[in-house]
Specification:
The chain has 179 residues and is mainly β. Strands 1-2-3-5-6-7-8-9 form an 8-stranded antiparallel barrel. The radius of gyration is 17 Å and the shape is elongated. The protein is 12% helix and 52% strand. The protein is built from 2 helices and 9 strands; from the N terminus they run αββββαβββββ. The longest helix has 11 residues, at 73-83. It has one domain (2-10, 23-178): Lipocalin. The relative contact order is 0.21.
């Protein structure tokens, strides 16, 4: 939580008062792991984010402990303690810029690319994530689907559960930001 507010504080001087920032405190993150022996699903309604229309910068953050779902309480425990190690790496962050020169004052639907640093499990990877953006008045809805490879973020799966946890995870984002 502290890191998220540090990111927002860092970006705050960049925001134009007339154009933003747009903020979200309850975006949705859903992930799906489909392995040969098991399918695992979990979600969080605690995605926080901000977008600055003046320079197209953004910051997103979700606490790993906020995910619920899973097939059992033991899976949730293993997710938090063994794989995500949320006592060491409590948040997932994505910060960067929208590549396209999007006019945030014009209502409509747009497909854009978000380029930035995705930090999961303490490992930062530069990513470009395609997103659908719908602008309506003072609201921006962002939807995205992308894949995360566990090996890219040093998340190791023990051989004994290798057929129950996929090496690549599908992630969906749905968030509404307001200014």
């Amino acid at each position: 939580m502290v890191l998220f507010f540090q990111i927002i504080a860092f970006l705050a001087p960049l925001f134009s008062p007339a154009d933003g920032p747009y903020r979200c405190n309850n975006g949705k993150v859903y992930f799906h792991s489909k392995a040969s022996l098991e399918s695992i699903e979990a979600s969080s309604n605690n995605l926080r984010g901000a977008i600055d229309p003046a320079n197209r910068s953004f910051a997103w953050s979700v606490e790993t402990a906020s995910f619920t779902g899973f097939n059992s309480p033991l899976q949730l425990e293993h997710f938090n303690e063994n794989y995500m190690e949320n006592s060491k790496y409590p948040r997932i962050n994505f910060t960067g810029k929208v590549i396209e020169n999007l006019d945030f004052s014009a209502n409509g639907k747009h497909s854009v690319r978000a380029k930035g640093k995705l930090n999961i499990h303490g490992v930062e990877q530069e990513r470009i994530i395609r997103s659908d953006v719908e602008i309506t008045g003072n609201k921006i809805r962002v939807k995205a689907q992308f894949t995360v490879f566990l090996a890219d973020h040093d998340i190791h799966i023990p051989q004994i559960v290798h057929q129950k946890i996929a090496e690549e995870i599908t992630v969906n984002i749905d968030a509404v930001l307001q200014n």
